[in-house]
Amino acid sequence: MRIGFPHCGHAYIVAQALVQKLGTGQSELIVPPPTSHRTLDLGAKYSPVEACLPFKLTLGNLIEACELGADTLIHARGTGVCRLGYYVREQEQIIRDLGYDARFLTLDVSQHRLKSIIHLVKEVTNDASWPRIISAIRFSIAKLFTCDNIEKVVHKARAVELEKGMTNQIYREAIKAISEARTTQEVKNIAKEYTTKLNQMPKNPGADPVKVGIVGEVFVVLDPFANMDIEMELGKLGVEVERTLSLSRWVKYRLFLNYLGVDEWKGVHELAMPYLKRNVGGEGWESVGEKVVYGRNGFDGLVHLAPFTCMPEIVAQNIMPSTREDIPVLTILYDEQMARPGMITRLEAFVDLLKFRRKRRRR
Amino acid sequence: MPTNKAIFNAGNSRAVAETCLPVKLFFGHVISLLGKCDYMFIPAMRSLGRKAYYCSKFIGLPDMTRALVPECPPILDPEIDLNKGRRALDRTIYDLGHHFSADKSKIKEAARQAEKAHLAYRREMSERGITPLQALDETYPDEGKPHSERVMSPVLSVAVIGHPYVVYDHYISHRLICRLQAMGVRVFTPEMVAQQALDIATTKFVGAPHWSFEADIIGAGEHYLHAEVDGIITVAVFGCGPDSMMMEMVRHRAGELRIPFLHLSLDEHTSEGGLVTRLEAFLDMVRRRRRACA
Question: A305 burial class (0-12, 13-18, 19+ CB within 10 angstroms)?
């Protein structure tokens, strides 16, 4: 069995870590090449025209995995109102039409999450023993959390760095070190080492970063290729970004704490209530609630990301302007036609607006 | 009031640009009703079956209306979620009925009659094979201009697949059904097939449905592709999430079965002339193919 899967941010590090600890016997993990313009071109070429960007990108990843000889493809499946429920159905057909003989294994991300992931791990590893599975899951989770924690520090450090590009360099090194680490202890050391490195970086004494929250559809928020490195671009403009969505948070709550009755979004949903009373699928409800949260916490602005034609986020986009917490929102819709300079121009204008508002407020 | 330019403009001025055309028109219709009513009835449609859901925009309609049309009278927004079971639906109906009557049995009776009327309407269309427009004409014969054209001698049979709020809205579809009928086509639509038959076709084609309206698209597509129609036309509005996936499945199937297929993607910029040209070209092809086969 040669297993391929689509990219989403640094999810591949988790997959690699799992395989590294479990060994897959006869099977082999095929990490598709990092998402590139070729991936997008392939995906867009074979997808229905009006499919959303995550569909096209993940399809591109899967095709590239097949080109490398993958015969088993892992993909997310969901029940609920979003198109995600149709991904596997459609992509299976497209891959078959392209002449690849690949089997799909699905990971239920909406209802029976834990059961589905364990089932998947058992199947892929040829029924490995429980202690080994648990230790492998703990190892991969350690890596994932380290990635996300370092990323949080990076979000703050980028805005105040003295030497432009320094943070990115350290961040890249950190991710590389994490993906190469062999033991949990090693991962812990890396976390400590790079956090100190980032914190000790020379800071621009005159920096007064604008604070911007990032909300929106989970895939484009988490995948730097899909969102054209928006966090980095904002950092270059001297903006400190913060986002709630992350893979580690998803794992922590959706795979574990939700089952103990902890609802990570409860507060956010309650704040969204006056404007949107119900879950509209995807992250629409959360986006509206988070606008209220960021507005109350004194953020200067909000960047709202979504794939073009994303249904839940269109609902959120329609509702957001009516909230009482009045912070500027920039909605960016991504599709394969979009160009990076266009996004940067919009970000520059937005950041100018935020700075102007801040100056006026302080006067 | 049927959709017109003024209604479109009113809705279009409120909603964000990316919103799909039917939802923009919906807001326009809400605005056209302002001042004429004390309450606005906008159910949040979540689900009409087990583990099958509506599109986000259906669920968010009442909340979007509240945000975009702040001058709207109080909105009655029962959440219709059959996934939670029949008892939950009954409770929703009672809660809604309380706005009008405190008498529980009266509410129950009203709900029963409404369901009966709906089923009768549905059966009327599926048993007699007429479009909702013809059914409306026959139910209310005296109300002005007829909605549908009479077909003189249909030569071709074509299935038109799409959501009822797209296919039967003259403003969105540029009177597609009437045009086809005037061109001598016998038109088949999803409503002309019994619900059970649609559900069976859906299950056969893709398994358990993911969307509540999947039977109308996937089921009807599969049904008509095996029903020896001369061609199949799918109609979707630009930016429709579910349709972007489902129409592709139907297209693929039509390719496998080698049945002429035309996909129409409509939006507010669709020109009538362009649409007619495409229809004529498609029908020419269907005719030629039929002659070649015969």
Answer: buried
